[in-house]
Structure formats: structure tokens, C-alpha cells
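User: Some background: our group keeps a shared notebook of sequences we're curious about, and every so often someone picks one and asks for a predicted structure to add to the entry. Today it's my turn. The entry only has the sequence so far, pasted here. Could you supply the structure so I can complete it?
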Amino acid sequence: MEGSKMELSHSIRTAMRRAAEQALAEERRSDGRLAVSCGVTICWHHEPDHAFTYEGVDLSESGLRISSPTILPEGMTGRAAFEVGSVSFNNSTVVSWCRAIRDAGGRIDRWEAGLRLL
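Assistant: Of course. Here's the predicted structure to add to the notebook entry:
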């Protein structure tokens, strides 16, 4: 019984933490962000000879949210290049956050990551 109480308590805390993180992320992203649809090419510093392409989701003054088929670790750095209208960017970037996007069945469909543009 003691073990199941601990597991339930941990599950509740985890669910509450995820819900709070989601709410804060959605609130933070609602101000000053421009929805975009653009290709974003990134050469990660750990693999500089290989360019990866992602879909840009939205853009702010200092960041870009992208969609990714895989998780991107926080703190990973690279050189990103993209164009949105008159905005052209080709400079360093760092992954600020990454979270799973789930489908209706609860399975991970893709990942979204926030890039801080340096």
C-alpha cells in the first residue's frame, strides 16, 4: 500500500507540474508572437557538417518556435538560417525548451522547441 501511495502522489505531482508548465508556456507565447510557416535550417555545433531542416511555427523579437520530429535537448547550440518576409536570420541559436505534442490518443506526434536567437 505504501508504494502505491507514493506512485500515486508522484503521478499527481507530475500531472500538476505538466499542466502548470503548459499553461505558463501558452500564456507566455500569446504576446508579441507572429505565426509563421517557414523552413528553418540548423547546423548543430555537435554535427556542423550536417544541416537539419525544421518547420518554423512562430516568431518573436528574440525567439523562434519550431516543430521537430525528435526531442531537442535544452542548451543545444547551432547556427540557424531562415527567412520570413523581410526578416532574414543566419546566426547562432540555443534550444531554450522542448516539449512533446501529443495526438488525440495521447501518443507523441512531434516535438516543439523554443529557440533563443542570439
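Suggested note for the entry: The first helix runs from residue 2 to 29. The mean pLDDT is 85.
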